[in-house]
Amino acid sequence: MDLGVGTGRIGSAFVAAGDDYLGVDLSFGMLAEFARRAALERRFPRLAQADGRALPFPNAAFDAVMLIHVFGGMRQWRAVLAEARRVLRPTGALVLGRSLAPADGLDAMMKQRLALILDQMEREAPGRNTRDEAERWLEAEAAERRRLIAAEWTAERTPRGFLERHRSGALFSKLPTPIKDEALQKLAAWAAEKFGSLDAAFAERHEFELNIYRFG
């Protein structure tokens, strides 16, 4: 089961491979888009609309439960992980996945500057990423944890690209529009001065990390 599948950016590969796969998401619109894209390639994935805090599946129903790029500012992650464990077979694996950018890369510098700008505007940073809390909980609960770098690639990053992506980010998008606009304008001015251009390109090495937990 792929919990929080969205539009199938990750799940489509499992469907193409013919895996015994089920994609689950709370958003019917995202699931519909996944199904539409898959149908263009004459593939018809098994999809279910459900709340991760109350999954409509029996106990011990799945060999693996994946949560890929789903944490962000999730407030009720304990309920989601409890449900994931409930539907997982005793010998199964709970898999958390995320992309990792360099700690000293462009995105990291932009995030640090944005946090400073919001602080100067007397606005708190918009929530926190709960993934670290969830991982600490899993470390305490799991019998085994294995970390795997599943892929590595070089990505080209620009300040303009960061500004465009960050506006719709799960946490930042919760701020009032005037605050978002002002903060991004100030960040754009800082980036243009620091890097010479909003289109200055930086080649960075990225990784896709999987953390695999077993409880049996």
Structure description:
The model has no long low-confidence stretch (mean pLDDT 92). The chain is built from 7 helices and 7 strands, in the order E-H-E-H-E-E-H-E-H-H-E-H-H-E. Helix content is 38%, strand content 26%. The chain has a single domain, classed as Vaccinia Virus protein VP39 (Rossmann fold, 3-Layer(aba) Sandwich), CATH 3.40.50.150. The chain has helices at 11-16, 28-40, 77-86, 106-120, 131-141, 159-167, 177-195; strands at 2-3, 22-25, 46-49, 62-68, 88-100, 144-157, 202-214. Strand 2, helix 2 (28-40) and strand 3 (46-49) form a beta-alpha-beta unit. The chain is globular. The two termini are 18 Å apart. The protein has 216 residues and is an alpha/beta fold.
Structural class: alpha/beta
Largest β sheet strand count, sense and barrel closure: 4 strands, mixed
Count of DSSP-assigned helices: 7
| Order of the strands making up the biggest sheet | 4-5-7-6
Q: Cα-atom Rg, whole angstroms? A: 19 Å
| Principal-axis shape | globular
How many domains in all?
1
First and last CA, distance: 18 Å
Mean pLDDT: 92
Q: Briefly, what CATH class?
A: Alpha Beta
Strand percent estimate:
25-35%
Low-confidence stretches: none
Q: Please name the fourth-level CATH homologous superfamily.
A: Vaccinia Virus protein VP39
Corresponding CATH architecture: 3-Layer(aba) Sandwich
Give the topology string: H per helix, E per strand: EHEHEEHEHHEHHE
Task: Specify the helix fraction band.
Answer: 25-40%
